[in-house]
Amino acid sequence: MFGSMQLIGPFTQILPLSGLPMKGAIKDEQLTIIQNGGVIVADGLIVAVGDYHQLIHQYPQVELERIEKQAVLLPGFVDCHTHICYGGNRAKDYALRIAGKSYLEIAKAGGGIWDSVTQTRLADTDALVNAIQERANRHLSEGVTTIEVKSGYGLSVEQELKQLTAIQIANQSVAADLIPTCLAAHILPKDFQGNAKSYLEMIVKELLPQLQQQNLAKRIDIFIEESAYCSEDAIPYLQAAKAMGFDITIHADQFTTSGSAVAVELGAVSADHLEASTEKEIQLLANSDTVAVVLPGASLGLGMQYAPARKLLDAGACVAIASDWNPGSAPMGDLLAQAAIISAAEKLSTTETLAALTFRAAKALNLSDRGMIAPQQLADLQAFPCADYREILYYQGKMKAFGVWKKGRRV
Known about the structure:
Urease, subunit C, domain 1, single chain, 8-stranded parallel beta sheet, 2 domains, 16 helices, TIM Barrel, alpha/beta, 38% helix
């Protein structure tokens, strides 16, 4: 039935994160903790999790991978929103922003997303592949075993294909799973001769069929915002993508509302950002299957309020936390540090925060095979050098995993 089996452990504590609700608030009292536990792994999957000594008796032929120090085991993190395929940086933008210029002022002066488009277009495929590999490997070393990666700095058929090809190539050479998303609808490219509606129609006709033929992406994203696309133009674009079989996700409610209403109406897998969401949007998301993805890195980078994560959870929403790692508004890319910071600001319990980084984040990518330590789940695991799981957020991201396993193999 299985190939060779290994037992990884013993761990002082294992947090399986199984049996917890997919939506709404979670108290720490709901958390199951396995003391002195181990995990049986075979063929990249978890076979069993439980008491270490019982597992040794139950599986006498198993190979042992011993953990020789106090350690807390968690599922690998899932970062369900990043932009780590890009060229150059926007340190100049950042300096202007902390000196008091607004996001829109910087964009109008030639900075912003268009600056990253210009720098990414200048980078060849090899340079982009190398950049993705470097960022993905740093993420993996910090316990992030699944990483969503968007295009969106190409903004032409040829350049978007270049970005998505680079993501596909990088995925074959890094241990983490890279999940590609086409964000050709990031902003209206300055060099496109026509309006937003005609650009989106061109993307549907000329780009999306190529994504399917070359198997480059199964997810489509759009930025609904005053500086990008209005709801009226976004809806037919998303409907067309959905009719072609793509999952849809939306950059929603970052500065102004309307994006999350579109996400709920069209059954998007997630609505991401939500810093501007009001009670109306919170209730819409809570009463839907759309995952509310909050991006504390963007709030930190832009010096603005956090998404209302506490209110979303209390209303019954499924909340995930992602890094938004990008060259402009969220250059830090440290998922655990950002999660620790928003948990303090928004008063999220430890269990809510860990759920938002694991199985709830996996739901935002339509993945049900990861984010928990349970039989038949991917053996994506990370071990922290402590005896009490509460220390992980207590150190606000400074304590990092000392061991990371992808599909059962220590990386």
